[in-house]
Amino acid sequence: MVLGDGGAVWWICYSTSVPSSRRYAGRYATLLEIPVNTTSDEESYRVVVLELTDVVPRIRTDRPNIYVGVTTRTAQQLAGGLNNGKYKPAWARNNVVGLLDKLAPTGTFTYMGAKQLRDDLKRQLRTKGYTVNRNTTAYRTYVINLDNPDLKEPGKGYVYVGQTSKSPEVRLQEHLTGARSGKGHNLASRKVFKYGTQLNYDLMTKRIYLTQKQALKAERRLAERLRQQGYNVEGGY
Question: What span, in angstroms and rounded, lies between the C-alpha atoms of 49 and 15?
C-alpha cells in the first residue's frame, strides 16, 4: 500500500472470489490479495477512519487523534452512534469530530480482509504522525545546536543528533538539566549538558518511526548526512 504525503491513499484490490477480476475502490493501493465480498449472504465489513478530540496527547501537533476500525456500519452511522454514547470502542464515545473518508479504503470486504486492510492502514497512518487508536508510541530524530567557544573547526555548525520516544522539546530539557531516570541513570549527553543551546528545527524532519531500531538507523543516517554537508556532529552513532 502507498500513502502519499498529502494524505491521499491509493489501493487496488484483487478479489479472491473472482480470480480474474480487479476491483478499484478509492485512492488506496495495495498489492495484497484482499478477499472482497461477492455474495449477498456474506456480511459486509468496512474500514473507517474517524477524527477524534485529543483523547491522548498528539504524536504530531498538526496530525489529529483518529480511530481506525472495522465495522458493518457506514462511517457516518458509526460516528453518530459513538457521539450518542453507543457502539464501541467506549473510549471514542462523544469524542468524534468528523469523518476522514479520504484516508479510508472504500468498498466492503470480508471480516478477515477488512482486518488486514485496517492493520496495514494503521501502520501507514502512524508513520505519518497520526495518533491512531490512542497509541502514542513513536520515535523521532532531533538535532540540538551546540556552542563551544573553544572549538577550532565548527564547520557549518556544531550540532548533536539523537533519537527519542519523547517530544524533542522534552528531550532537550532533559539534556540541559542533566536529568536522571527514576533509577538514577543519567539521561543527558555530556556534550549537550555542557554546550547545548536549542533545537535546530531546520535540520530536523517530521518523520515518525514505529520502533527504536528504525529510529536508531535514521539517527545514524541523519548524522552522516550532516557530516557530509560540513557540520561538526556529536552523537548519531
Answer: 23
The span from the CA of 36 to the CA of 23, in Å, is 9
Q: Identify whether the C-beta of residue 39 lies closer than 8 Å to the C-beta of residue 27.
A: no
Q: From the CB of residue 29, how many other CB atoms can be counted at a distance below 10 Å?
A: 16
What pLDDT, on the 0 to 100 scale, is given for residue 16?
41
Mapping DSSP to helix (H, G, I), strand (E, B) and coil, where does residue 170 land?
helix
The type of residue at 196 is G
Position 143 scores a pLDDT of 98
Query: What proportion of the chain, given as a percentage, has pLDDT over 70?
Result: 82
Report how far residue 79's alpha carbon sits from residue 90's, in angstroms, rounded to the nearest whole number: 12
Taking Cα atoms as reference points, which of 16, 11, 43, 224 lies closest to residue 118?
11
What's the pTM value of the predicted model, to 2 decimals? 0.73
Q: Confirm if 191 and 146 have CB atoms less than 8 A apart.
A: yes
For residue 131, what are the β-bridge partners? 65
Asked if 197 and 145 touch (Cβ cutoff 8 Å), the reply is yes
Distances 23 to 7, 10, 219, 221 between C-alpha atoms, Å:
21, 12, 40, 39
Confidence of residue 20 (pLDDT cuts 50, 70, 90): very low
Phi/psi of residue 48, nearest 5 degrees: -120, 150
Residue 34 pLDDT class (50, 70, 90 cuts): low
pLDDT at 27 over 60: no
Give the contacts of 40 (CB within 8 A, at least 6 positions apart).
none
